[in-house]
Amino acid sequence: MERDKVLVGEEELARQREYIEKMRSVTDTLTHAPLALVDTFGCQQNVADGERLAGMLGEMGFAFTNDASAADVVLLNTCAIREHAEKRVFGALGELTHTKEANPQQIIVLCGCMAQQKRIAERVKESYRHVDLVLGPQAEWKLPELLWQVFSEGGRVFSIEDEHGRIAEGLPVKRDGSVRAWVSIMYGCNNFCSYCIVPYVRGRERSRDPERIIAECRELIESGCKEIYLLGQNVNSYGNDLDIDYDFADLLSSIDAIPGDYWLRFMSSQPKDATKKLFDTMARCAHVAKCLHLPVQSGNDRVLKAMRRPYTREGYMELIGYARSVMPSLVVTSDVIIGFPGETEQEAMDTVSLVKEARFDALFTFIFSPRPGTPAAEMDDPVPRAEKQKWFDRLLDVQNTYSAEKHAAYVGSRLRVLVDGESDDAEYPLSARTEGNRLVRLRGDRSAIGSFADAEITGSNTWALYGEIR
Fold first, then answer.
1. What's the sign of the alpha-carbon dihedral 160, 166, 170, 176?
2. Residue 262's pLDDT is what?
3. Rounded distance, CA 122 to CA 189, Å?
4. Is 16 in the same domain as 138?
5. Are 151 and 97 in the same domain?
6. Adjacent-strand bridge partners of 29
7. Considering only CA atoms, which of 389, 312, 391 is closest in space to residue 344?
8. I need a surface site. Which of 136, 227, 432, 445 has the fewest CB within 10 A?
């Protein structure tokens, strides 16, 4: 699409601000501010979307609650990546029948990736009649107008048009805390991996203008933010749709030039677009965390081709090898799918052997979950779930061994960590992260939350490090 058609125009944004003011004119007359609950499922991109949705609700005069029974508006911001997430959302919708019965004026909103799918919208329309508003990711910037329509006219509103998707700049954001921030640099995906629903629900790739991103990061850093995540379905392809000679590595360099004490992270990356320039830039930039999440998905070339992942096992290992050569302390994590349709036991074990070769610091592992509407959902899948579980367990045994070994190697060292909150461990009451994004449970004073600290690592297990602030 032409750039002026990708960007939401000022006239359209002004229209949404008018609807914000209309809602505000109602909420300001109430004795107490009405309450909204924004419940986000899924990935960090959804978290960022949820913060924008909450920002608009806040501008409309809503305060916030975590109690659905007390909320005047309940907004479920959903994920469609796996069946489990979908079931959780329908479970939550079922529970909301009781809150709606107790408070018939309550407005229930379903948004996010699940909502964009026509089969989901039809199911909600027929079986969850207490849901008032359904809108997909492409329509979220129009929340004020759509919410006003429900509020002022009654009835049910569905906004799930099959559209390319656009970028709306300047929307209010209600961030969840001040230590860490999520900054979307692009939206959508052009890759169409055969198992993934994302391109169908989030549209084609569209990059934000670099000046906007840099300005947002500068504001966050100057306000004291210590950790910024740059987000996109495939950040490595950032800028491909811009008519400028400027790519993701260039964006990292530009943000890194902003003075301050902070870490810069990013996700998610596609191996096909990862370059030596990117890794060289990571190595050179002082603020960019030496941590790389690079999903491989499979260690077998035939399965990779069936997944429509346009790289080979050998090519992936070359990328990891180069990245580690320029960043010796690099922490590498990945995603793996076991039991892809048609995968044999030997092919699954090829993935296990890749994990042994790569020696990832951590691995996010999944048994294949068919997503209706994707090519993989139509593929012949003769292997029973119980057999896939056996392959999956072998994979976990290998990775858990490496994770435990790598964590044990930190014991006795002193690491710089970002103390980001409280933990649920009474003995180690603080939660922190290393530059490599390793979880650390700490002993120390609560006053350290929100700052960098030096931690002496005294213990470890497969999933976390333990230590004390020094």
1. positive
2. 98
3. 25
4. yes
5. yes
6. none
7. 391
8. 445
Domain boundary pick from 288, 313, 333: 288
Rounded to an integer, what distance in angstroms lies between the CA atom of residue 206 and that of residue 237?
Answer: 10
Ranges of residues in the chain with a pLDDT under 70 are: 1
Distance CA 77, CA 113 (A): 8
- 302 with 226, same domain: the answer is no
Domain boundary, last residue among 404, 426, 445? 404
Asked whether residue 123 is assigned to any structural domain, the reply reads yes
Spatial contact of 432 and 417, defined as CB atoms under 8 Å apart: yes
Question: pLDDT tens across 377-405, in order?
Answer: 999 999 999 999 999 999 999 999 999 99
pLDDT at residue number 1: 65
Same domain, 54 and 96: yes
The torsion defined by the Cα of 39, 41, 44 and 45, in degrees rounded to 10, comes to: -90
Same domain (yes/no): 299, 284: no
| Distance, CA of 167 to chain centre | 18
Contact call for residues 78 and 112 (beta carbons, < 8 A): yes
Q: Give Cα separations from 65 to 33, 69, 255 (angstroms).
A: 11, 10, 34
**The pLDDT value given to residue 284:** 98
Are 462 and 324 contained in the same domain?
Answer: no
User: What's the CA angle centered on 333, arms 426 and 384, to 5 degrees?
Assistant: 95
251 in Cβ contact with 288 (< 8 Å) = no
Element (H, E) at 415: strand 414-422
CB atoms within 10 A of CB 191: 17
Q: Which domain holds residue 354?
A: 290-404
CB 222 within 8 A of CB 269: no
Interior angle at CA 85, CA 82 and CA 88, nearest 5: 150
Domain count, the chain: 4
pTM: 0.94
In a domain, 165, yes or no: no
Indicate if 381 and 392 belong to the same structural domain.
yes
